[in-house]
């Protein structure tokens, strides 16, 4: 399958550079016509500047060419600082198509620096190709075309390993293929602040459910037979939910747990409700099964 991702971006050696008064127009104004340029105004005597510098440089390099960083020592280029009306440093400006479009003053935490860089990229349209490719990958996954989804995810991941929705979907592709160790390796490599992303929490929940399903004895037919003999065999229904989930029958999995809650909501200290909420997290908040399941759950609990 051919990727739809373009060849945009710049070479790694040109991602971070120092500018002077003489090179400012070429390095910042002119260069921002190609990709957005972040200008970091600093000075050797500025302690916060030394804290900010490595963090913003790492965030720019992680963006894989979708943004550049230019560093300017204001002691060597006071004219530029005056033109930009800089009153304190570190001062950071983002330029796109020759114009300043965003900025901040002071040494921000790493998470806010990453958010700033991503915001600049998004505002410039620099991640449009990735979003389009991700939409195609998600559509393929939803259609159970896991091979196509995996191929697209790998292409996006090679282009931008920091795109969390792709990381989450790539993990789900491995889970669908039964490659749970590969999914775990991918998710375990993420930094702590990435774990709060909805796509990542959903993938983690899906991995946990897949692991639990592997421990269930019997198949769906055997469990359904047990329930037919004894409708109060809620353990069989609970196990059936996990087996159905493992085979892609999401609606059936949710309904099995909802049947337990309807019959005995406190069974096994509320285990059915807890597992149902894990299913909803794995499916995603906007999934049709999640929406229908939440409606039925509310009807059961508040009727």
Features:
single chain; 303 residues; alpha/beta; Glutaredoxin; Serine Threonine Protein Phosphatase 5, Tetratricopeptide repeat; 3 domains; five-stranded mixed β-sheet; 5 strands; elongated
3D architecture notes:
The protein is an alpha/beta fold. The protein has three domains: 12-123, 3-Layer(aba) Sandwich (Glutaredoxin); 128-214, Tetratricopeptide repeat domain (Serine Threonine Protein Phosphatase 5, Tetratricopeptide repeat, Alpha Horseshoe); 220-302, Alpha Horseshoe (Serine Threonine Protein Phosphatase 5, Tetratricopeptide repeat). Helix content is 58%, strand content 9%. The chain contains 14 helices and five strands. It has helices at 24-30, 47-62, 78-83, 110-123, 128-142, 146-159, 164-176, 180-188, 198-214, 220-229, 234-246, 250-263, 271-283, 288-302; strands at 16-18, 37-42, 68-73, 91-96, 99-105. The protein has a five-stranded mixed beta sheet, with helices on both faces. A hairpin with a 2-residue loop joins strand 4 and strand 5 (99-105). Helix 7 (164-176) packs parallel to helix 9 and helix 12 packs antiparallel against helix 13 (271-283). The longest helix is centred in the C-terminal third of the chain and has 17 residues, at 198-214. It is elongated.
